[in-house]
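Q: Please design a sequence for this.
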């Protein structure tokens, strides 16, 4: 099998790709709902907001950072997990076991890893994914794009480079080195006018002087959505009387319940 098939099969079977798709569509929908030129928002605001929400949704669905599960109960702290999500987002969020995917940042760039496979995020101008200019990205993204291609083109190594790139081949080979994990990139774009989006996973290719930006890439919008469902407390009902006194418990109320309580007091 090719590397692309291996990676897509691994992350697809683990429902990682479907989770990335859910996170991006959730982040993009919320960004567009909030976006308002009349309120002073511009393309920079939309890009920053989309990235921030995308990162947040990935942490939620993968139970990372502030959404990490420490109690052993994957359904704990649901009020935090679901805060500010739409009903649709809650109902369609894939259910993954905590710990299946972990945070794996690279030089401060947010990353997530499943076993020995990591991915970072990169934004792009809509319609320009195939020519994403890696030399203009951060040193970390350039380092990712310098990784050795496990499937070099045959029969000539030089066929993979534009003529203006051949002069820098030796420099690239000297600089190229393996990272601690196989690292790929999830690239995303949005056209705010048509509201069309792009979302791909691929092995980046350092395209000095222009040219193709990928050794290979996979369209994640074609990935079928994973089964989701609102999480609830699945503890079994008691089958007999419980003679042990209950410990004092302080219930955690949702923000909506607290507003209802205050409204009742004021009436």
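A: Design:
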């Amino acid at each position: 099998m090719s590397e692309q098939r291996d990676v897509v099969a691994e992350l697809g079977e683990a429902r990682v790709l479907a989770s990335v798709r859910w996170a991006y569509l959730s982040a993009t929908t919320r960004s567009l709902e909030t976006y308002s030129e009349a309120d002073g928002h511009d393309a920079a605001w939309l890009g920053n907001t989309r990235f921030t929400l995308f990162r947040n949704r990935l942490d939620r669905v993968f139970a990372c950072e502030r959404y990490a599960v420490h109690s052993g109960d994957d359904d704990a702290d649901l009020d935090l997990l679901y805060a500010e999500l739409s009903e649709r987002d809650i109902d369609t969020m894939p259910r993954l076991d905590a710990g299946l995917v972990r945070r794996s940042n690279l030089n401060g760039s947010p990353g997530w890893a499943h076993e020995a496979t990591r991915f970072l995020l990169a934004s792009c101008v809509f319609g320009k994914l195939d020519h994403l200019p890696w030399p203009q990205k951060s040193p970390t993204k350039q380092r990712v794009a310098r990784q050795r291609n496990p499937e070099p083109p045959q029969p000539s190594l030089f066929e993979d480079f534009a003529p203006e790139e051949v002069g820098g081949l030796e420099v690239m080979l000297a600089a190229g080195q393996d990272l601690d994990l196989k690292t790929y990139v999830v690239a995303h774009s949005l056209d705010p006018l048509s509201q069309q989006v792009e979302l791909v996973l691929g092995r980046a290719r350092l395209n000095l002087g222009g040219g193709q930006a990928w050794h290979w890439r996979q369209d994640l919008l074609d990935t079928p959505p994973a089964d989701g469902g609102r999480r609830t407390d699945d503890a079994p009902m008691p089958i007999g009387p419980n003679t042990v006194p209950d410990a004092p418990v302080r219930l955690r109320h949702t923000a909506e319940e607290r507003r209802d309580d205050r409204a009742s007091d004021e009436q």
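Q: Thanks. Anything notable?
A: The mean pLDDT is 83. The chain has nine helices and six strands.
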